[in-house]
Amino acid sequence: MTTAAIEFKEVTKVYRRRLAGQEVPALTQVSFEVGAGEVCAFLGPNGAGKTTSINILMGFLYADWGEIRVLGYEPGDVRAKQKIGFVPENFAFYKHLNAEKLLRFHLALAGGDMSKSAGLIRDLLFKVQLQGYEKLKIGKYSRGMVQRLGIAQALLSDPQLLVLDEPTSGLDPAGRKEVKDLIHTMKQEGKTIFLSSHILSEVEQICDRAIIINKGRLVRMGSLNELLGTGDLVEMVVDQLPTEMEPVLAEWGATIECGAQGVRITMPVARKRELAEKLWAAGCDVVSMVPVRSSLEDLYMKLVGGSEPV
Amino acid sequence: MKIRTIALSTFGSLVRNRLLIVFGVLFVCTVLLMMTPLLGAKAIAKMGQAQQAEAMVMGMVSAIMFFVSGTGSLLAAWCAADAVASEMKSGTILAVMARPVRRWEFLLGKYAGVMLLMSMYVVMMYGLSWVLAWIGGERLHATTWVVLAYPMVRYAVYSAMAMALVTVLHPVVTMGITLIVAVLALIVQPTGQAVGSHWKYLRVPLWITLPSTSLLSEERFLTIAHASVKQTGWLQHLTTLGYGLDYALVLVLIAMWSFHYRGLTRD
Known about the structure:
The structure holds 2 protein chains of 2 kinds.
Chain A: E1 6-17, E2 22-34, E3 39-43, H1 50-57, E4 65-70, H2 78-81, E5 84-87, H3 99-109, H4 117-127, H5 143-154, E6 161-165, H6 173-188, E7 192-196, H7 200-206, E8 209-214, E9 217-223, H8 224-228, E10 233-238, H9 246-252, E11 255-259, E12 262-268, H10 272-281, E13 286-292, H11 296-304
Parallel strand pairs in A: 3-7, 3-8, 5-6, 6-7
Antiparallel strand pairs in A: 1-2, 1-4, 8-9, 10-12, 10-13, 11-12
Chain B: H1 2-15, H2 18-46, H3 50-90, H4 92-97, H5 103-135, H6 144-166, H7 171-187, H8 197-209, H9 234-261
Helix pairs in contact in B: 1-5, 2-3, 3-5, 3-6, 3-7, 5-6, 5-9, 6-7, 6-9
């Protein structure tokens, strides 16, 4: 059995305002696991407790209750941090440094081999498409460039686990695609990726699993197939539908919609072959046939939609 | 290696700090203004009133160095407070602490960076005292290491104090408290005439608790006339510096302990 990359067991965190005597629960008995090699999305509305959870697993905050293990170690343990790459939300850098100097600084902190730093930094900057901007002060970078530099520094020590808090925030569509491609590459390299994002369509494309929290409580978790359903229905688009087939389809519980692109038939997946054969026999052309899955956005809205931030 | 990297980065950030640059410019202007009467003293010496001129120069150099050295204590405190607080405020601490760096290593690196800056300040201060004496037409008769070591230890105490305070308080509050401590430490003497009954009972506990700035002052060794050089034994030097270093060490340990338990989030 492989060790889970991240383990949260009944983690509770309460923010206390001592002077005001207020207690704000940020996390309440949150339990989840992220397996090694998985790409797991951590979803929830603003104030749901995502950043608090990430801060706890990085060792920046202490949980009031519960057990946490990151790569088998306590959060904040340097042995674990050696194998973690982290991109915080709205990454902040020393603005007086340039990309090269910043990456050298982080490499030194990571205990990396400084004699090979020049080549490594060049490769990383190429990977995040910042080649040519090595000498430009980070203070002059655009938001997207800063974010890409953040990803480059996270990759410096060839991490096993990547923790990305809103990695695509502030990026334009092209920048978002680049980050998405980078995550794909890292996924292929077998790295575990734990990412928090609000862009659900991207999450759906990249991630294997999703964990959804709201108001500090775990709402749902599982693989995307489990969450979105494997597809009990299939959607078939045909160029035309003979009228004699309409009662048969109605008997099967199918729905029919006529549109500019053809006739859209949604029906139980068990009958797809039978229907396709009947249509072909009747001289119809099947334009497309795809399983019907609810989108992550639909599920998300169903679970947390309209909830007020905590 | 990690501590050194953080120290150098802290030093780099401090010397580029705009507030510090403005402070430096204002400071130089003030010192230049204060230096003007020294030229007058030189003229007096030329008129054949050597003893009067020497006394005048001594007084002026002493006053300027008191100002420069005292400002150094506050500068040390401000740099230490800012070195930690600015990382928290900007959020750069998150990227640094995500690296395999222990919290005490981070704080020690910050402290070392501040001390690196203060060592430059001390060397500059030493040079300034020579220049001042030279402008006044006199010569300093002070042992170099003493003039360098004493203020360094004093600055080590004040920067450690500010670092310990800033781990739990806002930097402005930290500076306020450090300023009060610095003033109180100057006033409080273990002996002497008590002003009132309350002050009498406060004086001894305060003297024990506060860093003895007068004891750690290099001013008493900054003499111009050779005749007035007081011989201080090695044991006395060691005891005094040991006291200061011990005080700073305790404060650094308190800062590390406090920093270990605080949450690291963007302020």
